[in-house]
Design brief:
24% of the residues lie in helices and 35% in strands. It is α+β, with helices and mostly antiparallel strands and 161 residues long. A 7-stranded mixed beta sheet has the order 1-2-3-4-5-7-6, with helices on both faces.
Length: 161
């Protein structure tokens, strides 16, 4: 398994993976493509997208994470891990990379929402120290379901140059 920064060329594989997972956030192709557009406005938030490949150099993406820096906080927008490699540490690897990067970048916290029924993801977030902070009623469509909100306060370190 190899973790690397995603590129626009990964969008078709990310969409294919996400479509296989009912609990994943289902985005349009343009939403994925927007992750790789250069921000022209200084106030626009910056994306952070990583993928895990089955083998280095292959197009076999088995997991990905998309997050965005908004001021001093980071939002985990989407994360997906292929069913055949679940419970093998890929979700922890992706989230650990985000946590580490956000800390070094001076982030204050990471926040997210997750389907109430997604117990495996919720267990992972709790294991990594995320704290449940609230509920958004009927946030998700198809099927209608509440979103559980989580937040992870970060210990700030700095990225050495």
């Amino acid at each position: 398994m190899r973790l690397r920064q995603a590129t626009a060329a990964d969008v078709p594989a990310m969409i294919a993976l996400e479509r296989q997972i009912s609990a994943a956030g289902h985005w349009s192709k343009s939403q994925y493509e927007d992750l790789f557009k250069v921000a022209k406005e200084p106030h626009r938030s910056q994306p952070y997208v990583f993928v895990v490949e089955e083998e280095a150099g292959t197009s076999g993406i088995v997991g990905f994470l998309a997050a965005r820096k908004i001021d001093a906080e980071w939002e985990l927008e989407n994360i997906a891990v292929e069913d055949k490699v679940r419970r093998k540490g890929i979700g922890s690897l992706l989230l650990g990379e985000l946590i580490s990067y956000a800390q070094r970048a001076g982030g204050a916290a990471i926040f997210l929402e997750v389907r109430e029924s997604n117990q495996s993801a919720r267990a992972l977030y709790r294991k990594l120290g995320f704290q449940e902070t609230g509920v958004r009623k009927n946030y998700y469509p198809n099927p209608a379901e509440d979103a559980i909100l989580y937040r992870l306060p970060l210990k700030i370190t700095t990225i050495s140059q």
